[in-house]
Amino acid sequence: MVFLPQEVIAKKRDGEKLTEKEIKNFIDGFTHGSVSNAQAAAFAMAIFFQQMDIEERVALTKAMRDSGSILDWSDLDGPAVDKHSTGGVGDNVSLMLAPILAACNVFVPMISGRGLGHTGGTLDKFDAIPGYTATPDNELFRNTVREVGCAIIGQTDDLAPADRALYALRDVTATVENISLITASILAKKLAAGLDVLVLDVKVGSGAFMKTTDEALGLANSLVQVANGAGVKTGAVLTDMNEPLASAAGNGVEVRNAVDFLTGKALDPRLRHVTLELAAQALVMAERAPTHEGAWKQAEAALTSGAALEKFAMMVSALGGPVDFVEKMDAYLPDAPIIRDVFAPQSGKVTAIDTKNVGMAVVALGGGRRMPTDKIDHAVGFDHLAAIGSKVDKKIPLARLHARDETSATEAEQRLIQAYRFDSDMQKNPIIVQTIMPDEI
Fold first, then answer.
1. What is the mean predicted confidence (pLDDT) over 380-396?
2. Catalytic residue among 31, 112, 122, 180
3. Residues of the chain with CATH 3.40.1030.10
4. Lower CB density within 10 Å: C or N end of the chain?
5. What does residue 8 show for φ and ψ, rounded to 5 degrees?
6. Residue 158 is a catalytic residue
7. Could you confirm whether domain 5-50 is CATH 1.20.970.10?
8. Any catalytic annotation for residue 404?
9. 317 is catalytic
10. Could you tell me which CATH number the domain at 81-156+173-328+432-440 has?
11. Active site includes 146?
């Protein structure tokens, strides 16, 4: 029977369940041009209003995964493991997690993205390192993973191209905010990376896309069920984003924060907890440790022994960065012309933070994009950010500002001050909200 895309659109529009074959035919047609952009946009709108059940989401994810190349890591002497974060402020976990896992004898072909809205992007952080190649050819990528144990790069054009094209349509047709489409979009790229294990960091709070625990839990359950249904062992950790995760927000400043973390010079406690929790969950799923406690200790040993730092340095060098980057970090990372402390208008204890507005203050400095074509300023941002519960006064600042010019510095300073609260009941949220492992679904 001849495939007619309008029949699939009408069926989903009317709330009926699509078959795996119908979904595959539609995505194949969209990838190869027999389904128009208008039809794909109508398909997305039908899903937006009618949702998809888990079986349909699995089928959509697999169809988009299969629209391009699928990486094969079967030649590695160990499992291929990756992490995905739904995005936050001061979230530089990937920079430490990948080398920690590599030091624990798993392989991490981490395909990351750039900043979106108020949230920072891992690739934008690595662009602050001179020479680092975020889009290497396949041979360099594979060799780095094989020889170092980890490589953090960007998505190549041949991985899940249907997702990239469909997302562009969703972005301009008001169909982004849909759990079925979000699930398939996130997982299509990860599944195309040929993973054995995936751990998800689903953020919840004022600096996350999912503001409430119920929203985050809905997304996490969808992602875990669909990824496992598509053949990748996957778990999720819901983590708090009601304050910046690291004490730094910006690109170069977050790289510096990550290196200080790996050297042991300065370890933000919440950041350490999230990083080791994600590492432990990944190691248990990868069968590198029989228990969560044992996996945590293994990851902690990789960090404190310097083994993870060594892996990070090797990865940076292998992908074109300076061979002495760790030793001479300050000589390589860009400095902003204006560096000064930001003080609160009153003395007291920090009781709450509007974390999204901290992220927007970084965007105002030029550390994020207002338009997709904007260039990132890797020198700007904040460090020494005060956490909830911290005392501030005329001598103890809220943060240290790194700015390109006085105009952006003034705006960002005002935004940062407005993001902090001192006059409400303090609520220090647990950093780990909930975990969902494959055997729990």
1. 95
2. 122
3. 81-156+173-328+432-440
4. N
5. -65, -45
6. no
7. yes
8. no
9. no
10. 3.40.1030.10
11. no
